[in-house]
Specification:
Elements: E1 9-12, H1 18-29, E2 33-38, H2 41-51, E3 58-60, H3 66-80, E4 85-88, H4 103-131, E5 134-139, H5 152-171, E6 177-184, H6 198-211, H7 216-227, E7 236-239
Parallel strand pairs: 1-2, 1-4, 2-3, 4-5, 5-6, 6-7
């Protein structure tokens, strides 16, 4: 196995918990230079201390604000002179039936799940084009492949991430940039806590308790994609817990 993770400069959004925090832990152990962004700065401080990272490696980042995502990426370049991997991980999953008209939840999902990814691409791409190298990893979901009642808007944002990522893949070929879509099933995270409909939340929580696998599994998949030889571009990974039927 090659060792293409060590020394890579990796920017992670949504790094204060769940998939993002687990990935920061794993990649740091593998020798990556991780720069983390999230809204909850206190949690980032705690995680940075755990990982032995300086406070300069964390940036308070709301991915719905393009300027804050830009500041996160710029921090990585200021610290390390480059950005090798952009992991657009931040996401929300407030499931509800469309008939309930939870417009605020819909807007939040579009802002975080789709605009947040776009802002990450916009911030990282100029640096990667100049380097003629880089890797953009966008987090979709099993819901980006299969929709169920209550998940229509969430699934729509995740399908959009897949289409956006495929378009990006084709556009960045002249710049030697790799792109990967990771579509997880039930993985331990705070996603179920973003659900505002009590009935739906109870059902999703029960499902996660029965099936969800540790976030470290997601982290290992991120490392797998990064670790491929430079001439190998892993474009999409769809994975579920073995017990998950949906």
């Amino acid at each position: 196995m090659t060792d293409n993770v060590h020394g890579k400069v990796v920017v992670i959004t949504g790094a204060s918990s769940g998939l993002g925090a687990a990935t920061a832990r794993h990649l740091t152990k593998l020798g990556a230079k991780v720069v983390m962004g999230a809204r909850r700065l206190d949690r980032l401080h705690t995680l940075a201390s755990e990982l032995g990272l300086p406070d300069t490696a964390i940036v308070k980042t709301d991915v719905t604000k393009a300027v804050e995502v830009q500041q996160l990426v710029d921090r990585a370049v200021q610290l390390h002179g480059r950005i090798d991997v952009m992991l657009n991980n931040a996401g929300l999953m407030p499931h509800s039936l469309l008939e309930l008209g939870k417009i605020e939840d819909w807007d939040r999902m579009i802002d975080v799940n789709l605009r947040g990814v776009l802002y990450g691409i916009a911030a990282a791409l100029p640096h990667m084009k100049a380097q003629k190298s880089g890797h953009i990893i966008n987090v979709s979901s099993v819901a980006g492949h299969k929709v169920r009642p209550g998940s229509a808007v969430y699934a729509a944002t995740k399908i959009a991430v897949r289409m956006l990522s495929e378009g990006l893949r084709q556009e960045v070929k002249p710049y030697n940039i790799r792109t990967t879509i990771i579509s997880p099933g039930a993985v331990e995270s705070e996603l179920p806590q973003s659900i505002t409909d009590a009935n739906v939340a109870a059902g999703v929580q029960k499902f996660y308790e029965a099936h969800a696998i540790p976030a470290s599994n997601f982290a290992h998949i991120v490392a797998f994609a990064i670790n491929q030889p430079a001439e190998v571009d892993i474009n999409e990974i769809l994975f579920r817990p073995t017990s998950q039927e949906l």
